[in-house]
């Protein structure tokens, strides 16, 4: 596996690969790789000629300085994991090379960023859109793979790709869960043993909501989720929404046959986790 740190080097390398007709798959990450990332990488290796993984803890998408400082950084271990799945190129740039000047760009995603993550993490999606645009320019992929755990991020990236006419196919890959249901996330590494035991309650809340969908009104499902999580040690619910799966607009009622996305964010101790579940009301 090639390891490239410099932006001018990755640009040149990718230009050569594209000109020689190679199909490029790209998995952008912030490192601390887990099985969820590895599944994205395996899919890319299978579906493309060349797979590039980027590891870059992007400072502009953190609205909380502690979250940025404490974000797990495990580059040596990540490099070994990438070799096991057949990744061809690791791109691990330095912040000063990605942001040569402070970025003053302002993206607007309209209603899509007015809810959930956009509402609770001001500036987050601006940072994501800025860095994803830069990474797409550097890597020039044909396909880019994103995990469904960050459902709203995938919708934002799709809107970015469409709005700026990037010639990139965005692939959304299903959530990968631990045996107890906890959605895999790099932030799980920050949970202590007790918090790790209560963290699957986010998935428990989604399952509870799924059971009640179609039988109870939305407001009562939301109240049941709140009550369930308030009985959990060290869990502080930030939001739970039943949303349209495409626009992510929160719904106040649902119809038979409708597809919805159940979305949740909560602190477990000091660690903020998110999760979601796509549900077809015909199947509940
Ligand atoms: O999902 C992530 O890890 C990040 O938001 C991404 C897409 C790599 C951009 O920094």
UniProtKB/TrEMBL annotation:
UniProt keyword annotations, A-Z: ATP-binding, Cytoplasm, Ligase, Nucleotide-binding, Pantothenate biosynthesis
Binding site for ATP: 30-37, 147-150, 176, 184-187
Cross-referenced InterPro entries: Pantoate_ligase, Pantoate_ligase_C, Rossmann-like_a/b/a_fold
Binding annotation for beta-alanine: 61
Record keyword Protein biosynthesis present: no
Pathway(s) per entry: Cofactor biosynthesis; (R)-pantothenate biosynthesis; (R)-pantothenate from (R)-pantoate and beta-alanine: step 1/1
Chain sites annotated for binding (R)-pantoate: 61, 153
Its job: Catalyzes the condensation of pantoate with beta-alanine in an ATP-dependent reaction via a pantoyl-adenylate intermediate.
Protein name: Pantothenate synthetase
Organism encoding this protein: Pontibacter chinhatensis
């Amino acid at each position: 596996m090639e390891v490239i740190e410099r932006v001018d080097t990755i640009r040149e390398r990718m230009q050569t690969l594209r000109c020689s007709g190679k199909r490029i798959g790209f998995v952008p990450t912030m490192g601390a790789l887990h099985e969820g990332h590895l599944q994205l990488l395996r899919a890319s290796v299978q579906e493309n000629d060349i797979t590039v993984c980027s590891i870059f803890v992007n400072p502009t998408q953190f609205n909380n300085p502690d979250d940025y400082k404490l974000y797990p950084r495990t580059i040596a271990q990540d490099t070994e994991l990438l070799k096991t799945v057949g990744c061809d190129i690791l791109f691990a740039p330095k912040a000063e090379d990605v942001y040569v000047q402070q970025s003053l760009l302002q993206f607007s995603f309209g209603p899509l960023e007015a809810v959930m993550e956009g509402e609770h993490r001001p500036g987050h999606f601006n940072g994501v859109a800025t860095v994803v645009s830069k990474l797409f320019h550097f890597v020039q992929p044909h396909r880019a793979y994103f995990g469904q755990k960050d459902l709203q991020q995938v919708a934002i990236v799709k809107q970015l790709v469409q709005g700026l006419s990037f010639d990139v196919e965005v692939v959304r890959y299903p959530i990968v869960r631990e045996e107890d249901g906890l959605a895999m996330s790099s932030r799980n590494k920050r949970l202590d043993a007790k918090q790790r035991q209560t963290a699957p309650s986010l998935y428990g809340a989604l399952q509870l909501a799924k059971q009640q969908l179609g039988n109870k009104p939305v407001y009562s499902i939301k109240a049941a989720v709140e009550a369930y999580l308030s009985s959990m040690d060290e869990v502080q619910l930030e939001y739970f929404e039943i949303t349209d799966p495409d626009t992510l607009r929160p719904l106040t009622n649902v119809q038979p046959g409708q597809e919805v996305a159940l979305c949740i964010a909560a602190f477990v101790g000091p660690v903020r986790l998110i999760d979601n579940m796509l549900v077809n009301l015909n199947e509940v």
